[in-house]
Amino acid sequence: MGCCGGPPVPPGTRIQPVRTNGSTVDVSLNGQPDIQEEDDFDGPLNDRSCRDVVFLILLIACLGGMGYVGYLGVMSGNPNRLLFGVDSWGNVCNQPNTPIPNATNSGKDMTGLMNTFYYSFPSPIDPLVSQIVQTDNTVMCVRTCPGNSTMLTPADYADFATTSNSRVCFYDLDPSQYSLASISSGQCPTPPVLPHVSVLNRCVPKNRIDAAAAVAGAVTSILDTIDNDFTDKFVQDVETGWKEVCYLAAISSGVALFIVVVMRFIAAILIWTMYVLLILACLGGMGYCWYNWYTIQYAEVVVQETAKTWLAYAAIATAVGLVILLILLIMRKRLALVVQLFREAGNALGKMPLLLIQPLWTFLSFAAIMGGIGYIFLYVLTSSQPVVSQTGKVTFKDDELLFYLKWYFIFGALWVMNFILACQEVVIAGAVATWYFTRDKKNKLGWPIARSTGRLIRYHLGSVAFGSFIIAVVMLARLILAYIQKKLHGRGGPIVQFLLKCLQCCLWCFEKFLKFLNRNAYIEIAIYGYNFCKAAAKAFSLIVSNALRVAAINSVGDFVLLMGKLMVVAITICIGFVLVKDNQELNYVWVPLLLGGLASFVISHCFLSVYEMCIDTIFLCFCEDSERNDGITKPYYMSKNLMTFVENSRKAIEAREKYDAANKAVRRGSEA
């Protein structure tokens, strides 16, 4: 059935099976035969229809609503209020301003004055994240924050205004007019004015930097005790070593690609090494406890309490060790399946190397779309109307409607974010499933990535919108709960805080489970073209029926992939150290290495996430293959190595060998 602008599949183009001498031979339109099992399923189905269209329409409508909210935000918001701050008269720092009615000092040109200075520094967090100015606290826009020495007199204020070309006293007051009367009238800050540092364009007293900047401020404060110019030197090293960081990012891409290529080989080494080490650790722990008990029990001076303690330790260690050894024995064959899945994933990527650049397209689209949404959200977040007090000072009051529309905008952003990531998973799953269910992978594979992308765009955007909608709802619930926690901090009591944290933990676990289920549902969609609910139900059924295999793949497989990421980071840092160790312009050699290491971890995660999706897809295809076929009357699609993990493995391998021989004979005859 065709859909979304495409015509239905012409009946004459489908392959019709005919029975010949007990075998099923498919005859296509060009008359060329090919041996195939008697089954109407031949890999990812081409005969599909659009699914979950309602959710695609809802996503489009949501985007339209976000556009309207963004329009309201642009009309009344200004991101510079958040980035640079606002003074007490409604002037946004570091930009020209238009006058506000009844606010005498508004409408000034603050270009270059990018820091806000508070006469009375408020609570630790508010000045960093809020654009609201309190009427009882005077705020000024300054070019630089007050320096390293404490200012005690009006002469100190005047000297600062002359040297920094910015004022801590009122704008309309000339520095020559600074006096004790100016201080008593509130036109100048009350001394002493302590040394300040700029944190997110807010002047924060140095003695409160750890409270104002939380963890970041605490780290900066500690480093400042080591080197007073640490921040300046750090920024200087970033400016000096940015080329080296780019080199390391490029090197890490090559290293990650190399790790992906060799992962099929090193995975077996890592998995079986870990398996042996766990066995040795269990035996060693049991032996150590029994040895200590024996030594104490048969010593010349026996301490009965100590002997009883070690006897208890030995008994517990033995019980736990035997359970672990039993689990390892049961999981032995499943670990071998994990090793083989890594090899199969490597084979799939070898046939479809362009899959490795899928994260690049995802990243570019993600960065462009989310960057635009984030920029518009800054307008929405700062959208408010000025309110002038009797003293002429200005505050900005949020519109109540826009307060709720902000949450709507956040939900839309979460939905779009998960939608983009889900599209990549469906494309990869469709391509790998096509590879898995293709008999002749050398000659018949075609363009699996393009075909998978086409199926996604043509049929399954609605299903992807459905799955990403569910995740977005849970993520929004977590954000709202975090907002409630912040509002109730210090008010609700320890019991309320404990319950909120438990609920937050439950939501986090539920989100992880849904993401795992969605990933497998997308694989089912890529194979069969189901709607989301049916695909999720089928995936859940397969996961439950293969619970031990799933546990092995997700625990051991994730560990191996993590080791692969750490290997990329370690190799990149080692190469980077050779590059920067003799660079005399750097104050701290570790700065470009740290940035390069972070970049290499992100890059390796992108590459290995494709590998992980390949493994999950091949495993689910393996389960589907085992469920639909028996390997004899209905030959498996899986490779011979994977056939060793099915019940009738010997007969299936023999049937596959006969099948391959018959297929080759038919092809030789057709070529002759």
Any overview of this molecule?
By secondary structure, this protein is mainly α. It has helices at residues 53-76, 79-83, 126-129, 154-164, 180-184, 209-212, 214-226, 230-240, 242-297, 304-351, 358-381, 400-436, 448-487, 493-528, 532-545, 547-580, 590-628, 640-643, 649-671; strands at 16-20, 23-27, 33-35, 115-118, 139-142, 196-199, 202-205, 385-388, 394-397. A hairpin with a 2-residue loop joins strand 1 and strand 2 (23-27). It is globular, with a radius of gyration of 33 Å. 35% of the residues are buried. The model is unreliable at 1-39, 123-135 and 210-228 (pLDDT under 50).
Write the layout of secondary structure elements.
Blueprint: E1 16-20, E2 23-27, E3 33-35, H1 53-76, H2 79-83, E4 115-118, H3 126-129, E5 139-142, H4 154-164, H5 180-184, E6 196-199, E7 202-205, H6 209-212, H7 214-226, H8 230-240, H9 242-297, H10 304-351, H11 358-381, E8 385-388, E9 394-397, H12 400-436, H13 448-487, H14 493-528, H15 532-545, H16 547-580, H17 590-628, H18 640-643, H19 649-671
Antiparallel strand pairs: 1-2, 2-3, 4-5, 6-7, 8-9
Structural descriptors:
672 residues; mainly alpha; two-stranded antiparallel ribbon; single chain
- Please give the order of strands in the largest beta sheet: 1-2-3
- Computed Rg: 33 Å
- Enumerate the spans where pLDDT stays under 50 for 5 or more consecutive residues: 1-39, 123-135, 210-228
Mean pLDDT: 78
Strand content: 5-15%
Give the topology string: H per helix, E per strand. EEEHHEHEHHEEHHHHHHEEHHHHHHHH
β-strand number: 9
3D shape: globular
Structural class: mainly alpha
How many alpha or pi helices?
19
Helix content: 55-70%
Largest sheet: 3 strands, antiparallel
Through-space gap between termini? 37 Å
